[in-house]
Structure formats: C-alpha cells, structure tokens
Specification:
There is one protein chain. A hairpin with a 6-residue loop joins strand 1 and strand 2. The chain has nine helices and seven strands, in the order ααααβββββαβαβααα. Strands 5-4-3-6-7 form a five-stranded mixed sheet, sandwiched between helices. The chain starts with a helix and ends in a 6-residue tail after the last helix. With 285 residues, it is α/β, with parallel strands linked by helices.
Length: 285
C-alpha cells in the first residue's frame, strides 16, 4: 500500500515534468527524479495510458459497373452443364491457374481501352480510345483525343455502334461491353450512352489488366508493329497514321488466336456458316 502511494507521488512528479518537457523518455526522467531507471519505466507502464492511434479506415469504393465476365466465368465453372447452351467457351488460362471465357459469335463481347501516344516534338500527349470485337478481333471504333475523359470514350463508342448497325448480325441487346475502371469509363455520359444503346456494361477489377486480354493484345500489335516504325510529329500525322493502320489491320492483319485469319475474314466466315445453318432443313420439320 505504501509502495503504491510512493509510486503515485513519482507519477505526479513525472506529469509535472512533462508539462514543461512533454514526452521525454524514462532515462531522462530518471535523471531529473534522481531515481532508478527501471523503477521509472515500471511506473510509466503502470500509470500511463496507451496512446490510441486513430487509423482512418479506407474509403469503401462503390463499384458502378460490375465485372460481368468474372461472374459469368464463375457460373460456368461451377455449373459446366450451362456450356451446352453454346453461348460461351470456357478454357484454362495461362498456366491453368484460372478459367477464361471466350465469345462464340461476333457482336457478343466488345473490349475497350485507351493508350497514351506522346508527340515529343510538341511535348503533347494524345490518347487513343479503341473498341474491338473479341470474336473477330475487328476494330469497331476509335477516337484520338487530347483529353482522357468520358466524352472521348463516348465518341469511340458511337463510331463502333454506327459501324455495327450496318451489319444485320448486330443486336445491341445481346452485346456485352467490357473495359477497365478508368475514369473515362465511369462517367455518367458514358454509362448513359450504353444504357440507351441497350448493351450491358462490364468492368475488370482494379489493377487487373489480364482481365481484358483482347485489348491488351491489340495495343501490343499497334505499338510493336506500327508506332515503333512511324515518326509522328503533329496531331494530324498521328491521326492519319492511325487511320492507315486501322484500315490495314481489319483487312490484312492475321491473328494466331483465330487460326491466322484477318478480322474481316473471321466475320465473313461466321456469316457464311450462319447462312448455311439457317438454310439447312431441321430434322422433323
């Protein structure tokens, strides 16, 4: 009891010292108190309240657009009998560590993204927005912008839809539009446009470019086989060069992923097979 009273008196003296020298450690306190350092440390542990560090919780990000591709993949992996419907192909990803779905027809799955294009002479950065069809690998629409915003994404989308509507195979209600979660693809005007079109929107998880492999492969082709060999000095140079490449790409660029066919050839082959299937009489008809 007496020891407790003595300890409490020492604690009061420590508090008085801290008023003029706040926060000094037990060694300096021991010198000022002419006391044993271990005793001062023991009293500090006994009387001093632990400092509570207020940790600001991470803000909960509300996801505006779900990852429909991921949800479909999980559903098909869990219920493989659904693959009999023929809507999707399910295969193993690289090293078989995950499953990947592939479309089975044109205008089923589109992928969109943007890429920086620097013009060193002008000190300007441009942004190339593109949309491709994942079944045929065909470039559907693109936009070159000096601003990375949702309006540029909408303009690329409008061009893609304008092109697709010329094809009787296109049905916007059966289309899934997949991008990342960049700010350009989360703007109200972008979401509203696709809602008016009637297509479903999907976004990859943040920091997961592997969830949008078709568009990453497209930009790799653009960078390695075109931009690398063309010097672009002005915005007009960039626009004309990209226009030339995109025309060439759809007509002449063979893809190993579609048996070395070009995007246009892949689309025509599907159109030809569809006509044959529709023309064949059904058994029991």
């Amino acid at each position: 009891m007496q020891n407790d009273q003595l300890d409490h008196q020492v604690w009061k003296r420590i508090q008085q010292i801290w008023q003029s020298l706040p926060g000094i450690g037990y060694r300096k306190l021991a010198v000022k108190l002419a006391a044993n350092g271990k005793k001062v440390l023991r009293i500090l542990k006994q009387y001093r309240q632990p400092v509570l560090i207020r940790v600001n919780p991470k803000p909960v990000l509300i996801r505006r657009i779900p990852n429909l591709l991921k949800l479909i993949t999980k559903a098909l992996t869990k219920h493989p009998d659904k693959l009999k419907r023929g809507n999707w192909i399910l295969r193993d990803g690289k090293n078989k560590y995950r499953k990947i779905i592939e479309p089975t027809r044109p205008y089923q799955l589109w992928a969109g993204d943007w890429k920086e294009l620097k013009l060193p002479l002008l000190g300007v950065t441009l942004y190339i927005f593109v949309i491709i069809d994942c079944y045929t690998r065909k470039l559907m629409g693109w936009e070159l912008s000096i601003v990375k915003d949702s309006q540029a994404a909408v303009r690329a989308s409008q061009k893609a839809i304008e092109t697709a509507r010329k094809d009787p195979l296109f049905d916007s209600k059966r289309l899934l539009m997949h991008t990342d979660q960049g700010s350009a693809y989360l703007g109200d005007d972008y979401i509203l446009y696709w809602k008016m079109v009637g297509a479903k929107l999907s976004t990859a998880d943040r920091g997961k470019p592997t969830q949008n492999p078709y568009i990453e492969a497209f930009f790799s082709i653009l960078a390695r086989f075109w931009l690398k060999y063309h010097e672009l000095l002005t915005v007009n140079d960039a626009r004309q060069s990209l226009t030339n490449f995109f025309k060439l790409y759809n007509r002449q660029w063979p893809h190993s992923g579609i048996h070395f066919k070009t995007p246009n050839q892949m689309l025509e082959e599907y159109r030809r097979i569809s006509k044959l299937q529709n023309s064949c009489p059904k058994i029991g008809a």
